[in-house]
Design a protein that fits this description.
321 residues; four-stranded antiparallel sheet
Amino acid sequence: MIKVSAPGKLILFGDHAVLYGRPCIVTSIDQRLNVSLEKREDNKIVLNAPDVNIKNYIVLTNDLDKPNPKEVSFVLRAILNFFNKYKIKSGLEISTKSEFSAKIGLGSSSAITVSTIRGLAELFKIEMTEKELFDLAYKTILDIQGVGSGFDIAAAIYGGTLYFVTGGKIIEPLKIENIPLLVSYTGVKADTPTLIKQVDRKLKENPQKINEIFNKSEEIVNLAKTEMEKANWKKIGELMNLNQDLLRKLGVSSKKLENLIKASLNSGAYGAKLSGAGGGDCMIALTNLKNQNNIKRMIKKAGGEVIETRFSVEGVKIERN
């Protein structure tokens, strides 16, 4: 049996703009998604994913391209793409276990896709570079979702904190030891596809205005990249606030997110913004060690759930027993 794990992610800067050729900064987090794989002698793929209530879901190897429930679609599409690329076909027993809820936008789809493909490569003794793994996982995400920049795939593979440009044109690790961030969940699952379509519609209706927002986002990301490597957290907080202003202009913030942002800033955070598509999911606040507990308390008072996590952790890996 092969066991693999990959980290979740948080986007720190460049949300939405990264879908349109602009850079972003993303960090991996220590909540991981685990996949176990072993071969079967028949032509069945048996999938168990207790976190999403999937028990003994069976698909024949010849039926992998047929529609499947969303809960199993990323794993099965990853298997199909791997089999097609490497001219392999085999029965499989696969089980998954997550350290974070799929309801929270921490990159579970990408982590499970990356873990599955990395595990298959180990199982069938196929050598893959990180970039080959990225390309196959990115193809899988696009096959399922139709849209995506790939930053969450990159975080799951490379780990650490990355400067990333759409489609993996640039994947550059940043030299960062630790990030004094707090993460808070709003309690609302973001409808990412709807929010992406909403921004795309605005871009078509008013390309000049929206492209100006995206260009400003790029400037902020490039400044943040420099300041993060200097650990100039006060300046980075200011840049976060500027990035959040742009996201407000895109119309992707929400009352709950704004309540958590306000609570964080009023209790001493250097900066705070949504992370991801918006509409709900997570808010991130940049703090210092002195005021972290106070900010946590105020976030909880404002209705947020603080998610305890470490940042800039190791990417996908084979777990040794």
